[in-house]
Amino acid sequence: MSSLDAIDRQLLAILQNDVSLSIEELAERVGLTKTPCWRRVQKLEKSGIIRRKVALLNAEILGLPVSVFAQVKTDQHTPEWADSFAAHMAELPEVVDCYRMAGDYDYLLRIVVGDIAAYDRFYKELIRHVGISDIISNFALEQIKSTTELPIPPGEQ
């Protein structure tokens, strides 16, 4: 991250908040002309710092108000099982986040569904296809903070 200058950091902060801005608007905000600004954004994309550009959807309006955090434990720790599990998680649209964890549980999933019955159907399908030894499901009551914006570390002083 040390190769980023102050303008790159400004661009990243702005784009995290609103990727729909035109290059003209973006250039104006960071004090560049259009072409150098476009080149910088391209460089950030090619380097992988900008992974992709997406629209953030409202789960409530889409009828998906229930977030479930599931801690998954397995007694299978082979590379083949881990690859199979990861591939299966990638295929499940309800799983919006999946992390391999250190600690008592092996994986943490964030699952988004319409209601408890939908989660029960998801759960039954999950245990049918994936060898797990334990699962703890926690239902979110209220979302206090949710952001896709990462803190941009300051440059070297």
UniProtKB/TrEMBL annotation:
Which keywords accompany this UniProt record? DNA-binding, Transcription, Transcription regulation
Supply the name of the protein.
Answer: Lrp/AsnC family transcriptional regulator
At the highest ranks, the source species' classification is: Bacteria, Pseudomonadati, Pseudomonadota, Gammaproteobacteria, Cellvibrionales
List, alphabetically, the PANTHER family matched. DNA-BINDING TRANSCRIPTIONAL ACTIVATOR DECR, LEUCINE-RESPONSIVE REGULATORY PROTEIN
Q: What positions does the domain HTH asnC-type occupy?
A: 4-65
The record's listing under PROSITE patterns reads:
HTH_ASNC_1 (PS00519), HTH_ASNC_2 (PS50956)
Q: Does the keyword DNA-binding apply?
A: yes
**Family annotation (Pfam families):** AsnC_trans_reg, HTH_24
State any GO BP term from the record. Answer: response to amino acid
Q: Name one GO cellular component term.
A: cytosol
Q: Which organism is it from?
A: Microbulbifer donghaiensis
Query: Which InterPro entries does the entry mention?
Result: ArsR-like_HTH, AsnC-type_HTH_dom, Dimeric_a/b-barrel, Tscrpt_reg_AsnC-like, Tscrpt_reg_AsnC/Lrp_C, Tscrpt_reg_HTH_AsnC-type_CS, WH-like_DNA-bd_sf, WH_DNA-bd_sf
Q: A single Gene Ontology molecular function, please?
A: sequence-specific DNA binding
